[in-house]
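Support reply, case 0932

Customer input (verbatim):
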Amino acid sequence: MWDWISRGFEHLIKATGYSLAGLRAAVQDEEAFRQELAVLVVAIPVALWVGETGVERALLIGSCLLVIVVELVNSAIEAAVDRVGSERHELSGRAKDLGSAAVFCAIVLAVVVWILVLLR
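Our regenerated output:
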């Protein structure tokens, strides 16, 4: 049993390293991620200040974190598409556009959440 726990802990350590490497790559290589991260750094203290309840604070912060998560997925899609080939292809363009649309929807959601909480 202890071997299973040891392997699980080792896997967790490696997975955390891979995750941190991904975040590092996003910060280094993705301008949109850096911009959204800057907004998040400002939004978290503001959310803690303007949110009156834990639920409001969670919605404000969570909606901004969702933008970061979707941007990471979009960046992964773009990297995978670019890895496959540099020639223009309808499906490659569609994949990138869909990823971009997902980021846009997450941003709209965040804006709506913030407006609704601030206008209560």
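We compared this against your earlier run and they match. Two observations from our side: The longest helix spans residues 54-84. Residues 67 and 108 are 9 Å apart (CA to CA). Please reopen the case if you see a mismatch on your end.
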